[in-house]
Amino acid sequence: MVHAREAAATMEHLAFERATVSPDGIAELTRREREVLGLVATGCSNDEICQRLWISAKTLEHHMHRIYLKLGLAPSRSVHRRVVAARRWAAHEAIA
């Protein structure tokens, strides 16, 4: 029997692998995740994003987690995932 924690870790691993199929991962994002990332890219703080989208901090945390997974941005001490995600969004919007 697979435990919930092991299943979650497996799902996250698969999401990281799947995100590498798309060149920048932006195509994998839902409409709401695109809204969140767009606000991140414009420099909005977490509080500002929560107020603008009428969501809780916990919901924002969930959206950011999913964005990082879909963009293939694993936790790292040397890379600031929020900055990398914002740059990818900006690059994507420049060619869209």
Descriptive terms for the model:
96 residues, mainly alpha
How would you explain this protein's 3D organization?
The chain is globular. The model has no long low-confidence stretch (mean pLDDT 85). With 96 residues, the chain is an all-alpha fold. It has helices at residues 4-19, 31-41, 46-53, 57-70, 81-95.
C-alpha geometry: globular
Instruction: Please state roughly what percent of the residues sit in beta strands, choosing from under 5%, 5-15%, 15-25%, 25-35%, 35-45% or over 45%.
Output: under 5%
Largest sheet: none
For the terminal residues, how far apart are their CA atoms? 46 Å
Query: Which structural class matches the secondary elements?
Result: mainly alpha
Q: Using DSSP, what is the number of strands?
A: 0
Question: What is the mean predicted local confidence, pLDDT?
Answer: 85
Order of helices and strands: HHHHH
- Number of helical elements: 5
Helix content: 55-70%
